[in-house]
Design goal:
Layout lengths: L23 H13 L9 H5 L3 H15 L3 H35 L5 H7 L7 H31 L33 H4 L3
Helix pairs in contact: 4-6
Length: 196
């Protein structure tokens, strides 16, 4: 074995270097620990997530959404908002294409056949308009039923988070909520100190 400090050759059974006194035992432990850490735990990789059953994957997805605060009602409002935005983009695209193509046609540098095609290009804006309308209909009517079903399911299920100190099941795949910041709520006591 070579000493990492002075580079001299030492026998394997020595605990300390004869030349500089470096701790060779600690060096051997560090080298051995690095070799054993090279093993991969496939259960903690994306491969394990990919091989999950449909039911387990859905359960994990629901748990992640619950931790993020994505309730069915929030999803519904996000869907309605996406419908309004997409529909508005469709209307804006139709107006822009109509005005732009009419400008090209009125410039006089376009043949009659090309002018006929350009005058109808604004119809391309109908696609995002219909997608936005579909999202609105889905958010207003269909997702409303999903929210009602989810709230009914919560009423039927026992409340796992009954108290602040309630313990959940011994499920090692359960996600624990994390605080958003280390410093969050640490300066709360300073608000009242200026009033004294």
């Amino acid at each position: 074995m070579f000493c990492p400090r002075c580079g001299s050759s030492q026998s394997e059974d020595l605990k300390f270097c004869k030349v500089c006194g470096a701790n060779l035992y600690a060096v051997r432990q560090a080298v051995d620990a690095r070799q054993t850490e090279g093993k991969i735990d496939w259960n903690k990789t994306w491969v394990a997530d990919m091989l999950l059953s449909g039911e387990e994957a859905q359960r994990r997805k629901n748990e992640i959404e619950r931790q993020a605060g994505l309730t069915p009602a929030v999803k519904r409002y996000n869907e309605i908002k996406a419908g309004v935005i997409t529909g508005s983009v469709g209307v804006a695209l139709m107006i822009f294409l109509f005005v732009f193509m009419q400008g090209i046609i009125l410039s006089g540098h376009v043949t009659h056949d090309t002018a006929e095609i350009l005058s109808r290009i604004w119809v391309a804006g109908v696609i995002p308009l219909l997608v936005g309308f579909s999202l609105l209909v889905n958010g207003v009517f269909i997702s409303k039923k999903m929210v009602e079903l989810a709230s009914q399911k919560q009423l039927d299920a026992p409340d796992r988070d009954a108290g602040p100190h309630a313990l959940g099941p011994a499920d090692t795949t359960e996600f624990t909520p994390a605080n958003f910041s280390v410093t969050e709520q640490t300066t709360k006591h300073l608000r009242g100190s200026g009033q004294r």
